[in-house]
Specification:
Number of domains: 1
Shape: globular
CATH class: Alpha Beta
CATH topology: Rossmann fold
Radius of gyration: 17 Å
Largest sheet: 7 strands, parallel
Strand order of the largest sheet: 3-2-1-4-5-6-7
Structural class: alpha/beta
CATH architecture: 3-Layer(aba) Sandwich
Order of helices and strands: EHEHEHEHEHHEHE
Helix content: 40-55%
Strand content: 5-15%
Bound molecules: 1,4-dihydronicotinamide adenine dinucleotide
Number of strands: 7
CATH superfamily: NAD(P)-binding Rossmann-like Domain
Number of helices: 7
């Protein structure tokens, strides 16, 4: 494997688990120094310490504007700048609109969409100071092709996709901004879907052309590609990494 991110300084939110953790690992394997941010401070610290190039960590709730600014400034100080950002912190809540409380709706929008906005906002001054800077936001296949019961989550992720395009336009040519739409990925977020047969119908994998769950490492590979200079002419793009869920 090459060192596509050699010398790069990358901030990853949601780095204590799932896709964020896989991105932090692969980015460090590719030569980056990584700042692992998460509301789970212990998880973020453990992950940062375990990386092939030891990383930095910050406990932060991405919905807290002051906390986010503090964490990004501290990450920039620890890494000596920031030239990559991956917004992976997120939550899911599903259910019919008639049963969705306003608190749940607000929480999902707040973490997934406003959190992505706040972290990007706090990172931009640091990214502007770097050359070849890049942001990758994690939306979802639910942004491209929502299913029943996903009103808050799909709206939040559709927002992340549009936010990514708006920022790509605004921050060009200095900072590239792209968006990944994962399919069904085997992470703790989906632990509840891995039911025993007696607990209900399984996830309908026939919606996915590849007919299987994705691995967090498969999402990390696409994110590292977009962070790297291999993607130097790509901005404002949405890449579905979803086993073919959204093309048929
Ligand atoms: P995960 O649940 O394994 O990890 C999410 C991480 O985000 C956790 O470490 C959690 O502590 C952190 N987090 C949550 N709220 C936070 C907050 N307010 N402040 C700071 N950190 C916070 O989930 P996974 O699967 O790794 O998801 C990562 C991203 O990918 C999310 O944005 C999710 O919506 C998205 N995604 C996941 C898919 C999947 O099938 N797992 C499919 C499509 C999108």
């Amino acid at each position: 494997m090459g060192m596509r991110l050699e010398g790069r300084r990358i901030v990853v939110t949601g780095a204590a688990s799932g896709i964020g953790a896989a991105v932090a690992r692969l980015a460090a394997l590719e030569g980056a120094r990584v700042a692992c941010l998460d509301r789970d401070g212990q998880g973020a610290a453990a992950l940062a310490a375990s990386l092939p190039i030891p990383g930095h960590s910050e406990q932060v709730d991405v919905t807290d504007p002051e906390g986010v600014k503090r964490a990004l400034d501290a990450a920039a100080k620890a890494l000596g700048g920031i030239d990559g950002l991956v917004n992976s912190a997120g939550i899911v809540a599903l259910g019919p609109i008639t049963e969705m409380s306003i608190d749940t709706w607000r929480k999902v929008i707040d973490v997934n969409l406003t959190g992505t906005f706040l972290v990007s906002q706090a990172a931009v001054p640091h990214l502007h100071a770097a050359s070849e800077a890049s942001i990758v936001n994690i939306a979802s296949a639910q942004a491209l092709m929502p299913i029943a019961g996903s009103s808050a989550y799909a709206a939040s992720k559709g927002g992340v996709q549009s936010l990514s395009k708006a920022l790509a336009a605004e921050l060009a040519p200095d900072i590239r901004v792209n968006c990944i739409c994962p399919g069904l990925i085997d992470t703790p977020m989906n632990a509840g879907l891995k039911k025993a047969p007696e607990d209900g119908p399984p996830v309908p994998l026939d919606r996915y052309a590849l007919r299987r769950w994705g691995k967090p490492e498969e999402i990390a590979a696409s994110i590292v590609y977009l962070l790297s200079n291999d993607a130097s002419y790509i901005t404002g793009a949405t890449l579905a990494v979803d086993g073919g869920r959204t093309f048929h």
